[in-house]
Design a protein that fits this description.
elongated; single chain; mainly alpha; 6 helices
């Protein structure tokens, strides 16, 4: 089960790297604007905020990858960062878009559940 939980943690990390790219580099590009349903004006006005948000997603990914490199000794680190992912997802769902609950918090919760049962 440890292998499955590590795969789930790695997928959550990759998901957050994807969020980093979307928010830091593609926010004002057609793909980024379509993904988030933005107008060009709003995308331009919020570009710095999105980049900041992307950076935080990168930190979440880095923490999860750090935990993975340590094997079982990294489980406390993986648990901490998965908890951060879940809290961020729930907060985003409450304040921005309900979709964030399913896109961010649910994968984090699944990975945490798999890790706890390993």
């Amino acid at each position: 089960m440890a292998g499955i939980s590590d795969i789930a943690v790695a997928l959550v990390a990759l998901l957050h790297l994807y969020f980093l790219v979307l928010e830091m580099f593609l926010w004002t590009k057609p793909f980024g604007m379509r993904t988030f349903g933005l107008t060009p004006e709003f995308a331009a006005a919020s570009k710095a905020l999105a980049a900041n948000q992307g950076l935080y997603n990168g930190f979440l990914a880095a923490g999860l990858m750090w935990g993975l490199t340590l094997g079982d000794a990294g489980n406390p680190i993986k648990i901490f960062f998965l908890g951060c992912v879940i809290v961020a997802g729930v907060f985003g769902a409450l304040t921005a878009s309900r979709k964030i609950l399913w896109i961010q918090a649910l994968p984090g919760a699944v990975a945490l559940g798999l890790l706890a049962s390993a």
